[in-house]
Amino acid sequence: MNRRDWLLLSVSALVLPSCGRQIKARHEVSYNFQHGETAKLIDGLAYAPKDAPMAVKRAIQAANRLQGKPYKWGGGHARLNDDGYDCSGAVSYVLREAGLMQGQMPSSGFFNYGKRGEGRWITIYVRPGHVFMTIAGLRFDTGWGANRTGPKWLTKTRPGKGHVMRHPSGL
After folding, report:
1. What is the DSSP letter of 109?
2. Where is the chain membrane-spanning (predicted)?
């Protein structure tokens, strides 16, 4: 771990106690397709609902570009357009390409991203050491534990308990 990463982790440890005011997920994160409301997954690529906001469509397009990239610890941080991504690098890439943030941040930075709670179109799920997101109801994740396979769309239900929910303002 380099000095910058250590400093970011140290600062995030000071921020985490304020998570008491955060809104925590209480349920599993599940995909349930609803025509016109959720993204459709076809052959590994997501398609936005016709009436989704443009930022949501851009986020889905960005996440589609990361399909098939491997999991790479630190990927997407030193190089914004990398050959592999970790969880926070992938979420940062999607939000940046959608025009919803600048630069990138480690997973702990997402405790303070956007607004508290679940979003209508995009929700960020963050806990110490991991972050993933849903876009138009479809989960975009790098996996967790021993199942870190790289950024991809996933329809399998995953635990949400222990994650704080955040969302981009207005979405």
Report:
1. G
2. none
How crowded is residue 31: how many other Cβ atoms within 10 Å of its Cβ? 17
Who contacts 51 (Cβ-Cβ below 8 Å, separation ≥6)? 36
**Which CATH number is 25-167 given?**
3.90.1720.10
Block means of pLDDT (10 residues each) for the chain, length 171 residues? Answer: 37 41 88 90 96 98 95 84 92 97 94 96 96 97 79 92 95 96
Q: How far apart are CA 124 and CA 90, in angstroms?
A: 12
Residue 74 corresponds to which tokens in the numbers above?
């630190």
- What does the domain layout of the chain look like in residue ranges? 25-167
Residue 140: what are its φ and ψ, rounded to 5°? -115, 120
Classify 21 as helix, strand or coil.
Answer: helix
Beta-strand relationship, 115-116 and 45-47: unpaired
> How far is it between the farthest Cα atoms of the chain?
48
Contact 103, 47 (CB under 8 A): no
**Prediction pTM value:** 0.85
Q: Give the gyration radius of the chain's Cα atoms.
A: 15
* Tokens representing residue 68 in the block: 């098939």
